[in-house]
From TrEMBL:
Protein name: Nuclear body protein SP140-like protein
GO MF annotation: an example: DNA binding
Domain SAND residue range list: 45-126
GO CC annotation: nucleus
Protein's organism: Phyllostomus discolor (pale spear-nosed bat)
PANTHER family registered for this protein in UniProt: NUCLEAR BODY PROTEIN SP140 (PTHR46386), NUCLEAR BODY PROTEIN SP140-LIKE PROTEIN (PTHR46386:SF1)
Length: 145
């Protein structure tokens, strides 16, 4: 597990998304949440820039990298890459983490001790488009071009 974690931490982002506008420190994972959910694979001591394009995510003992722009295109898109190079949808990654029946990836996937639902509520991650919204958006776009 620590070997995977150290390899995932070596990923660097080569764009401006890793920089803070106000020059402040990265948000830290909340320790009370970790105390309530011990053994869930959360990373309480890791500083995460939640505004970065690539976020480290965990589901129990599984670790991967979430590409935010891919998630924004829809939850059925493969947007989480694990160490061996395989790509997963959030639901598939949740199943891989042992939550076969949960179907609640927003609460089961965490980043720096925070659930993806919380990161979406605070605006760090844009919620994925639903299929219906994508079809309507594409239809409107085709009318204007």
């Amino acid at each position: 597990m620590h070997d995977v974690q150290s390899r995932l931490e070596q990923v660097t982002i080569n764009d401006d998304s890793a920089k803070y506008e106000n020059g402040g420190e990265p948000l830290k994972a909340s320790t009370p949440a970790v105390k309530r959910k011990t053994g869930t694979g959360q990373q309480p001591g890791v500083n995460v820039n939640f505004e970065a394009e690539i976020l480290p995510v965990t589901c129990k003992e599984n670790m991967g990298l979430l590409i935010k722009r891919k998630l924004e295109r829809g939850a059925t898109r493969k947007c989480i890459r694990i160490e061996d190079g395989n790509w997963f949808t959030p639901g598939e990654f949740e199943i891989r983490g042992g939550h076969e029946k949960a179907k609640n990836w927003r609460n089961n996937l965490t980043c720096g001790g925070k659930t993806l639902r919380l990161l979406m509520e605070h605006g760090f991650i844009h919620p994925p488009l639903t299929t219906k919204k994508v079809i309507i958006t594409l239809y409107k776009f085709s009318l204007h071009n």
